[in-house]
Design brief:
It contains 4 helices and 23 strands. It is mostly beta strands. The protein has a 5-stranded mixed β-sheet with strand order 3-10-9-8-7. A 5-stranded mixed β-sheet has the order 22-6-5-4-23. A 4-stranded antiparallel β-sheet has the order 11-12-13-14, with no helix packed on it. The longest helix is centred in the C-terminal third of the chain and has 11 residues. The radius of gyration is 19 Å and the shape is globular.
Length: 384
Amino acid sequence: MREELRTMQPKARIGILGICLALGWTSLTGAAQPVAADQVRQLDIVQTLAKPKDGKAEGEATLSSYLLVYFKDETHSLHFAVSTDGYHFTDVNNGQPVLNGRDIAEQKGIRDPHIVRGPDNAFYLAMTDLHIFAKREGLRDTEWERPDETYGWGNNHAMIFMKSYDLIHWSHAIVPVDRLFKSTANIGAAWAPETIYDPQKRKMMVYFTTRNGKETDHMVYSYADDAFTTLVTEPKNLFTYPKVRISTIDGDITKIGDTYHLFYVAHDRPGYLRQATSARINGGYVFNPAKIDPETVGTEAPNLWRRHGTNTYVLMYDVFGAKPVNTMGFSETEDFVHFRNLGHFNDPGSPMKATNFVQPKHGAVIPISNEELDRLRQYFTPKG
């Protein structure tokens, strides 16, 4: 999420593209082309999630491929891309959504998808329930879900939780955060949820960006039930920025050794990405004023992932200020002090390539096994 979208002019093709997707057409990189109805695949949402009989967790040595989850402003839907080397990513559905936001979200659109593997070998997927162009596309009569003067720009009140054991069959729940606790009744936002396992609580911790009404955006944490259908503890503050009235959003936590690294966005100068560290998963993060990303334009949505078989970590971020269109940017580090700029997807000289999709936004990458990668490829391969 970002404040800069307040002044963004929606692309004229957004509404047209929504119609094309509904008809099973693709028009992401050129003229719309019809796709046979039996070739338009979507992930399977199930009423009951069956746990595999073996319950066997994947060993780290087998997790040598990668899954990128992302969304697009044009579709407000979920997309998957995979890679065998961590450099070249290919969309499994040829640039089409793997889940249409209109089918799974209260606001008929999703943003900010995040995925993680839990200790039960299940995949936990969390998303923002929000469509920023819903009025334009005729999905609601008002600019926002609730009055701007009370709840602010881009206001929403719900998140989407999904869980799977095979990346194909998923449970699904809309989580109305404002109705769960007295302290959240007046929230103006429930943005960019991410999930991490807390070994002390033995629960999946969900942390996200929120605010009270139109007050300052900040990050909080809560814990989810085992089925990943709701939050069961009252949200508490995750990190306090030392300057008052400076928004902090889009947190991403990774444990490296004995230290938890929190990457986030500060609407401060210089912007945008920052890093804080702690010995605890849910607090005690120490402020570091250093700007992390190499960009000279706006960035958001940091996500950290490790290159298989190395001590090299990749920090990925949404370069929403890139012109003429947004893209993903990448930096590498071994010591979390020095970061090497890898450039953007498909930039000349950059090793990072997106082979059949453009303009990915606010993504997350996790390691998967070759078997899991093949399962996704086979599921989305057109039949016939």
